Amino acid sequence: MRIHHLDCGPMRPPGGALMDGVSPGLIGRLTCHCLAIETDRDGVVLVDTGLGLRDMARPWPRLPALNAGVLRFRFDPDRTALRHLKRLGISPSDVRHIVMTHLDFDHAGGLIDFPHARVHLMEAEAKAARQRRTVLDRLRYRPAQWGDTSRWHTYPDRAGGRWFGFDAVVQLDNLPPEILLVPLPGHTPGHAGVAIEGPRGWVLHAADTYFNRAEVHDAAPHGAKKAPPVGALAYERMMAWNPALARANQARVRELVASREAPMAVFCTHDPVEYVAMTIWSARGAGQVGTERAA
Ligand SMILES: [Zn+2]
Q: Which InterPro entries match (predicted)?
């Protein structure tokens, strides 16, 4: 197994360090951190898809203008999962499965670029996305991005077993046992993390359970506690379907990070520092220098 880290939707939001905690000046950086997992028997598995080719070429009205205005995506077709994979020598038809943490527009846009892949997600997420009941749901869920939804393969809540203190963790059908869906609802009704036992041990892609590393990784390398950036927190709050549940599940991830019994790399979708760190960490495990750098 080999894990590639891909940024499939780089953003340049105003606010600098208020959005990412590190950028000098007025403009911050955020990523759409997706994974491409080369498995031994089941082809390539994508975790989330970021923005797709069509989103990059003609963003309106595919994307919600309010969110895209705040986040300021770089609309660059070369940053889609499809083009990232081509540069890695992986054909789109090699992608047999896509595991979705949730269906927000900044995660689901590339679904339509891989029409032959089976899409795995929580049932609660599929239901909420299809119904689009609230104003927030109509902003975040964009049916034009999904392609054929008959290939969605959904998992009910409470279907799974235990994993490092988390319960109802889902083993995915026709996928290796090293890839698990970890329900972490709150940001959306069927939001989930994806745990992978890779060449360097377990990693947890926590998606939008948090937006900035300071929310769950308590100490900076020199030991000082850093407050999470207020701009990222404000956007996270605005997009939370159930803020109390989101906070509770974020606390569970914080406990996992702090636990000595579960040494693993935990990262989210939109933190640019985690993205660079994971790219380097994974490439070292593969004995290589990273091939995809932060845009
Ligand atoms: Zn997101």
A: MBL_superfamily_lactonases (IPR051013), Metallo-B-lactamas (IPR001279), RibonucZ/Hydroxyglut_hydro (IPR036866)
